């Protein structure tokens, strides 16, 4: 089965970024950094979603990120689907931290149950076909609105760029590089929206130069 092992983010200061991600989210080598900040404006077309068990975990992770210099796009709050927050980190990546629970049911923790790469794409149906042809297994699909693939340890999900921007609380406009490389075992390629994939192994270093 095709897997996504890591997400590499292009940043201007790899040492500072690596320290921030380790302290804020503690995801190990699933999040990597690389020196370089190609020109980009506005929405970069993706977010990293952290799915957790309960509101206190959302608050803990979001609080550490905010203390480290992140800004709130959507402050932590209850909604009809659960409890969550959306942040932009100091290096431009958007993070969505969410729980389906509206109340705590156990001791506070910082455990992340799932890491999901959320892509905002031009045509959900076309992107779904593209990835299915590359061997990615579909686990959820709602027509042209949303699709999710079983690519653990990091899941892949996509919805339209406009819907993604609305969900994250940002303007959909943007251009330039995504500043993201998806590391997996599907080979090296760029998808229809320009998201780049490269071969990755779980043994690769968390910081690249």
TrEMBL record:
Name the UniProt record assigns to this protein: Glyoxalase
Highest taxon listed in the record's lineage: Bacteria
InterPro entries referenced in this protein's UniProt entry, alphabetically: Glyas_Bleomycin-R_OHBP_Dase
Classification via Gene3D superfamilies: 2,3-Dihydroxybiphenyl 1,2-Dioxygenase, domain 1 (3.10.180.10)
Source organism: Actinocatenispora thailandica
């Amino acid at each position: 089965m095709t897997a996504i092992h890591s997400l590499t983010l292009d940043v201007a200061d790899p040492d500072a970024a690596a320290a921030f991600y380790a302290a804020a989210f503690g995801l190990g080598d699933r999040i990597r950094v690389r020196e370089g900040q190609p020109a980009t404006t506005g929405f970069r077309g993706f977010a990293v979603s952290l799915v957790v068990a309960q509101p206190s975990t959302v608050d803990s992770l979001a609080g550490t990120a905010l203390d480290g210099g992140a800004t709130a796009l959507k402050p932590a709050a209850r909604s009809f689907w659960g409890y969550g927050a959306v942040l932009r980190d100091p290096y431009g990546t958007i993070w969505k931290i969410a729980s389906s629970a509206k109340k705590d049911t156990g001791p506070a923790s910082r455990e992340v149950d799932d890491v999901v790469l959320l892509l905002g794409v031009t045509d959900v149906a076309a992107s779904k076909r593209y990835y299915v042809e590359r061997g990615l297994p579909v686990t959820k699909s709602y027509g042209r609105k949303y699709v999710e693939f079983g690519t653990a340890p990091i899941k892949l999900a996509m919805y339209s760029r406009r819907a993604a921007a609305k969900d994250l609380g940002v303007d959909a406009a943007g251009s330039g590089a995504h500043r993201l490389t998806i590391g997996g075992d599907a080979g090296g390629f760029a998808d229809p929206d320009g998201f780049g994939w490269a071969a990755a192994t779980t043994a690769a270093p968390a910081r690249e130069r």
